[in-house]
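Re: export button greyed out
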Amino acid sequence: GESVGLHLPTLSVQEGDNSIINCAYSNSASDYFIWYKQESGKGPQFIIDIRSNMDKRQGQRVTVLLNKTVKHLSLQIAATQPGDSAVYFCAENINNYGQNFVFGPGTRLSVLP
Amino acid sequence: DGGITQSPKYLFRKEGQNVTLSCEQNLNHDAMYWYRQDPGQGLRLIYYSQIVNDFQKGDIAEGYSVSREKKESFPLTVTSAQKNPTAFYLCASSTDSHGYTFGSGTRLTVV
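Workaround output, generated via the alternate export path:
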């Protein structure tokens, strides 16, 4: 497989458990955030987004929490499945201009059988 | 189906050689981007283009060049001036109202 994310922090969870992946963002002026999932050898896929006027947003099996006070973003995955194994990273953006996205290095999620 | 296509998936470059990575989208997105991904690091912006016939340097543009002659296409050339080109290259496109749609990437290796 591809060697993307060789030295990333890793989170190992048992299949069926909930996963929480954290991200500290850098700019207090950031107002739009996205979580991406990247499987080995593939491009990142959009999972869920949240704007700064919200502190929580739910999707299918995923929830994003935003704490602007401490500049922290988290992704919660319910009932983690083997197909969830991937690198997850957050992106922050100011004023929703594409060229101003800043990407975190990511966390590798490993789902144990 | 609409999407963004990168080719080739794997590319090998000899020392001193220029190579071009292809990126094509049929999403009718105005903006397109090239990122470089190295192990343990976040995506780093090489070049971006918000409109046809216009493009801007990103954070690590040295040793790279682009063109945007058509809305659908944003090829990236890795020149011999790029001394450490081995990496995973990602192309993306977007509208103003949402995040990126990424391609599947090109793995470039210097041999």
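Residues 8 and 106 of chain B are 6 Å apart (CA to CA). The button fix ships in the next patch.
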